[in-house]
């Protein structure tokens, strides 16, 4: 039996499918490709799949993870990847297959890219105000959790902030946010802060993408 970690992108119209639908999508793709994976026990066996932390609906992901066990020891990772690419629906794009190194529970943070589309404004004019707003020593926020609400400091949690205006009407934010337990933070908190602190900013729309995962020490997760 081989343990496999599939890295895949969730993009295009697929950003609007839920995590449960994604699970069904991958399960059916494995069945269509006749890939012999380990199944759960019980009355209604299902492929035993473990995913990286779910994406919020509408977010794209370019290094999402799915772990499963392959019962065919002779199948190579290259052959497996080719089979998966042939059956996955549009918007769910397998990137690589390899034996896992770390446990999914060791994921501590993720890199995000947020593109802010401005209406009738030049992005270069807002690049510096946005950078100053998000570069303060303390940015108190109220974080929603399953246990209710609690205070958090976005400035202390956020790392590697970049603010770019490479497109004429789009300000791009890149940063790393924690992704473990109750310390996890959603990029929407950045937008919340900007709307509160820069109410004149003509924000028309935003797109959010998750780019990759990291361990507690900052090294890439694999």
Summary keywords:
eight-stranded mixed sheet, two-stranded antiparallel sheet, 5 helices, 222 residues
Give an overview in words.
With 222 residues, the protein is an alpha+beta fold. It is built from five helices and ten strands; from the N terminus they run E-H-E-E-H-E-E-H-E-E-H-E-E-H-E. The protein has helices at residues 19-32, 77-87, 123-134, 154-157, 188-197; strands at residues 2-10, 50-51, 60-70, 92-98, 109-118, 140-145, 148-153, 159-167, 170-178, 203-214. The protein starts with a strand and ends in an 8-residue tail after the last strand. The mean pLDDT is 93.
Biggest beta sheet attributes: 8 strands, mixed
Helix content percent band: 10-25%
Give the amount of beta strand, in percent: 35-45%
Structural class: alpha+beta
- Taking the alpha carbons of the first and last residues, their distance comes to 20 Å
In N-to-C order, the SSE pattern is: EHEEHEEHEEHEEHE
Question: Regions with pLDDT < 50 over 5+ consecutive residues?
Answer: none
Integer average pLDDT: 93
- Tell me the number of strands: 10
Per DSSP, the total helix count is 5
